[in-house]
Specification:
The chain is about 75% helix and about 5% strand. By secondary structure, it is mostly helical. It is an enzyme of class 7 (translocase). Keywords: Electron transport, Heme, Iron, Membrane, Metal-binding, Transmembrane, Transmembrane helix, Transport. This is ascorbate ferrireductase (transmembrane).
Length: about 230
């Protein structure tokens, strides 16, 4: 005999919000309190601003806003069409933040070639490309009135799978960026390996790992579970 046991997503959603607030506080604190370390040899205030904007836009856009968009269907009341419209708008905002965030990194005298050398930069460009393709696929598949319902049903599992993979890739890209930064800080001449900034960066990395795990778990968790006696 099968019985359905409802499971509320509320605990996971609460943990996701707490993790998101923690990540927000850490990335903002890092950008504001240690901004001079982003471009220590820069003579241009404009370059410094762009350097600080890069981690802010990438984390807030591709991880925090995108994570909230993933969870929209779990908590937002209203019709399916309304939920899909909110999901699409949030992901569009996340994509815009990501594109502008990459532009800030390539902006200035250094150019693209000087920044396109690390695993972090390669993963970042792949991630934003997948994110854009995923958003366009979702728009065309779920909002184009000419599409057949059968096609949308077929595409939906792939849309979810690729969306979660892209979100995981965004978090992994952020982690490689943090590792790149902390390695640079710890290998500077006369640089200490135990600094307040390194503690903030490491804490941010742990917060991102926690947030991504909670968001993905909440996204794939069903609202009810069936058990057979």
């Amino acid at each position: 005999m099968a019985t359905s046991v409802p499971t509320s997503p509320a605990p996971l959603l609460l943990l996701a919000r707490i993790s998101g607030l923690l990540v927000s506080a850490l990335v903002i604190s890092w950008a504001l309190l240690f901004k001079s370390s982003f471009r220590p040899q820069s003579t241009s205030q404009e370059d410094l601003i762009y350097a600080v904007l890069h981690p802010l836009l990438m984390v807030i856009g591709l991880i925090l806003i995108s994570g909230e968009a993933i969870l929209v269907h779990k908590w937002l009341p209203g019709s399916r069409g309304f939920k899909k419209s909110v999901h699409l708008c949030l992901q569009g905002l996340a994509l815009a933040c990501g594109i502008f965030g990459i532009w800030t990194k390539f902006h200035g005298n250094d150019g693209i070639a000087a920044n396109f050398f690390s695993l972090h930069s390669w993963m970042g460009l792949i991630c934003i490309s997948l994110f854009g393709a995923q958003w366009l696929m979702g728009f065309m598949s779920f909002w184009h009135r000419g599409e057949m319902r059968a096609v949308r049903i077929t595409v939906l599992p792939w849309h979810i799978f690729l969306g979660l993979c892209t979100y995981g890739l965004a978090v992994a890209t952020a982690e490689t960026g943090l590792l790149e930064k902390i390695t640079f800080l710890q290998t500077k001449k006369d640089g200490s390996k135990h600094t307040p900034e390194s503690m903030v960066v490491n804490s941010l990395g742990l917060g991102l790992a926690l947030l991504s795990g909670v968001v993905i778990l909440a996204a794939v968790s069903p609202n009810s579970q069936s058990f057979r006696n």
